C-alpha cells in the first residue's frame, strides 16, 4: 500500500519539479506545530490527514485575477467552486499572538511582497466559503526595503523561510481565515505576469478584545486588478524605485 502511495508521490513530484515554486508547509502558533496541506502527498492517503490549511492543487501560482482561485489558490473537487474548507482549525490562537508561516524553499528569482489578510467567519469556518463577498482586511504587509531587499526572497531567506506576523491584539474573538500570500514579480513587467501564491489558514482567535474593521473590506477576486499599483511592476528597472504594495491599507486593529 505504502509503495503505491510513494510511487504516486514521486511521479507527482517529478512532474512539477521543473517549475518548483512553493507553499506554506507548516504553521507554528505558540508551541503548537500544524503541518500545512501537502499537495504532493496528502491527497494520496486513503484517509487524508486533517489540516488547518485549505487544499491547494500544487506549488504553482494563480495568475488570473478574475478567478475565484485567487482567494485560496483554487481547489475544485466534487463541484466545489473556490476554496474547499479544511476540516479543522488552529485553536486557541490568543489575540496578539505571533503566527509563524514556514514556506517551502522559495526561488531567489521570485522577488515580491508578502501580504496577509484576515476574514471573520460568520458561521462554522469548516463549512464557510467567502465567495465574492468583501470580507477581507489586511493585517500585515512587507514589500521592498529602501536598499532593495524583497520580502519574498531576501527577508524570507534570512529567517529560514519563516514569515511571522502578529494577530491584532484587540481583535474580537472568533473564527478567521488567514489569507497569506506571496506575489512573485519576476514576470510582472507586463500585464498578466504577476504570480500569486495564496494560502488560506483556518484559526480560532480567543481573548476579550472587541475590535473589528468597520470599513475598507475587500473581496478576492476583486481586490486586485491589472491596474492596481504593484501588480504590474518592473523589478529589473531602477532598483531604488519604491514598490507600492497592492491592496488596502493595513488595519492596525484599533490601537
Ligand atoms: C481570466 O479568466 C477569465 C474567466 O475565465 C477569462 O475570460 C479571461 O480570458 C482570463 N484571462 C487571462 C489573461 O487568461
Ligand atoms: C519548516 O518545515 C519543514 C517541514 O516540516 C521542517 O523540516 C523545517 O525544520 C521547518 N523550519 C523551521 C525553521 O522550523
Ligand atoms: Cu515560479
Account of the protein in words:
With 255 residues, the chain is of the alpha+beta class. It has a single domain, classed as Distorted Sandwich (Coagulation Factor XIII, Chain A, domain 1). The protein is built from three helices and nine strands, in the order H-E-E-H-E-E-E-E-H-E-E-E. The strands form two sheets. A five-stranded mixed β-sheet has the order 3-9-8-5-6. A four-stranded antiparallel β-sheet has the order 2-1-4-7. A hairpin with a 2-residue loop joins strand 1 (24-29) and strand 2. The longest helix is centred in the N-terminal third of the chain and has 15 residues, at 2-16. The N and C termini lie far apart (54 Å). The model is unreliable at 1-18 (pLDDT under 50). The structure holds 2-acetamido-2-deoxy-beta-D-glucopyranose (2 copies) and copper (II) ion. One 2-acetamido-2-deoxy-beta-D-glucopyranose is lined by residues 25-26, 102, 160, 162. Copper (II) ion binds at residues 19, 21, 110, 184.
Give short descriptive properties of this protein.
255 residues, alpha+beta, Coagulation Factor XIII, Chain A, domain 1, five-stranded mixed β-sheet, four-stranded antiparallel β-sheet, globular, disordered N terminus, binds 2-acetamido-2-deoxy-beta-D-glucopyranose, binds copper (II) ion, AA9
